Amino acid sequence: MSQQLANIPLRLPLMAAPMSIASSLALIQACCKAGIMGCFPTHNAAQTGGLDFWIAKLMEDQNRAREAGQTLAPFAVNINVSRHKPASDLAHEIALCRQGKLPIITSNAGDPSELIKAVHDWGGIVIHDATTLYQAEKAIEAGVDGLMLVCAGAGGLGGSLTPFSFVPAVRSMFDGIIQLAGGVSTGAGIAAAELLGADMVCMGTRFIATRESGAPAEHKQMLTEAGLADIVWTDRICGIHGSFLAPSIRDHGLDPADLPPLAGRRAQLPKGVKAWRDIWSGGQSAAMIDAVPCVAELIDDLETEYHKARQTMRLTP
């Protein structure tokens, strides 16, 4: 286990992935209270109260718990560092995170170099996502503290590499935090990720189908009914390859097996239909979801499964 992760109070080596719409403030609060890391993208906060409000509420929770002699798991903020993002927006988000001296920042979609400098300046760490070995190598060169390896089977925007190859390849050249993302929804899966060389798991689809999630109830229900054949990995929905639920594609008059070709790099969806909001994401782990529990119940189950799996694999006495 990475020394940086060893210093983070976690009940399980698990982070709820930063997801558009689904990662609500309530979900992040519930994750921290249940003992696992909650993470949210800044654009979610911008649409509901503002990033400063979300950070203030989450820090208030942390302070209140500390005063009561309790410890909450930390939360993380996901910052998109795409070159298409206005520099003023990026600077504003970094400034708000700096004010709170937030310990963990995750990043995606670009070069994290400048973000890393800023976060290290206040003593935080940066975990950047990668779907290819090239992206992982570039992030390591930039000085990241951790990598979220988004593997085949991930919900939303994912990669095509199997974790059985991707994780060991990155571990052989990187001793920082490695998060495995993609296809994991059980405690046994978390233990298996550790066996591969990951420090922790980033789990998304499983947390969409929780009561605290900001996803529509219909999306959550669809996940409980989905099988592997219902997961469509395509670039025709948002211009970048991602995993989407076939029933939600059909609900908008589209054939999952014959989607309109891209216009340049842009998806051609029916007028008024948007990816994520109308056509819903879901990874291959949806096949193992059959209920919509609250986060506390889910973490209880994952913890039991995790320790049972570790004992079976003789990772613990």
Mean pLDDT: 95
Q: How many extended strands?
A: 11
Question: What is the helix fraction of residues, given as a range?
Answer: 25-40%
- Gyration radius from CA atoms, angstroms: 19 Å
Net shape: globular
Q: Separation of termini?
A: 18 Å
Give the oligomer, counting copies of the same chain as homo and different chains as hetero: single chain
> Largest sheet, order of strands side by side?
1-2-3-4-5-6-8-9
The total of helices stands at: 13
Describe what you observe in this structure.
This protein has helices at residues 3-6, 25-34, 42-47, 51-67, 87-100, 113-121, 133-142, 163-171, 187-196, 205-208, 217-225, 246-250, 295-312, and strands at residues 14-16, 37-41, 75-80, 104-108, 125-130, 146-150, 156-157, 177-181, 200-203, 231-234, 242-245. The protein is an alpha/beta fold. It has an 8-stranded parallel β-barrel with strand order 1-2-3-4-5-6-8-9, surrounded by 6 helices. Helix 2 packs across helix 13. The longest helix is centred in the last third of the chain and has 18 residues, at 295-312.
